[in-house]
Amino acid sequence: MQEDQMSYQAFRNQQHSFQSADGTIKYIDQGVGDVIVLLHGVPTSGWLYRNMIDELAKEYRVIVPDMLGFGSSDSPKGYDIYSESNHAKRLLALMDALEIETWNHVMHDAGGLWTFELLKQDSRRIKKLVMLNSIVFEEGFKPPMRMEPGFMAKAAMWGYRNGITTNLMLKGLFKTGLQVNNLTKQDVEGYKQPLLEGKTRAMYYFFTQTCAALPDYTSLTQEISISTRVIWGSHDEFLLWNPQKSEVMTNLSIPQADVSLIDAKHFIQEEKPEEIVLLIQSFLDKE
What we know:
alpha/beta; 39% helix; single chain
């Protein structure tokens, strides 16, 4: 994947714009056929999936949004605007604008929370669900930081967007989140640039609100009936599979055959993109 690297600017040049009620959301829309949405988490963006989009787009129509407050999308003032339910409303609005009634859905990290909120709002929209190291239950949730709302957390965000601690934070994130960090300077640019542009309000909400009181989706996972596949980096230190596997598999009726533990940490899209694509394809192509 390293031979023909895409620059972050080239990635941005491929993005379309959707004017949500809260601000502009940027997204990739590539390929034709059955629709698949690739949803990032915190503090990433659609850039996380850059090594998977072209291959998936050979068979599917691939939608990859930058959620509000991340990547190339707007970062309006306020914090509650970045709640899980508001993220879900905006994603539904994007899909409505694209006239996509139902789709297959891949989620990672906090994208799991936004997805569960979307299912609470309209459970009919997602046909098949793929979990990539996603936040599900408290038992497996070990975030890299939890912050009290207020001055210290805001000061930390200030440091990230002003270049003071940006490199340090990303270095620590990828040291813990990757088994082997082979990211080039160009790769890191796609994670760094949004921070330097001030995209930290959504992060502030996540680390001060969500991490302090993770939503409980137990009843939702018991009620929905969606064919689900798990693809999980077995060495993840942020989101652990074993403490929650029984509850996840039971509640969502996931057979063991649809659980794949791969030799990676948290950012599995960076470590094993080809393997993930093949696992997604085999799952979606299965009747």
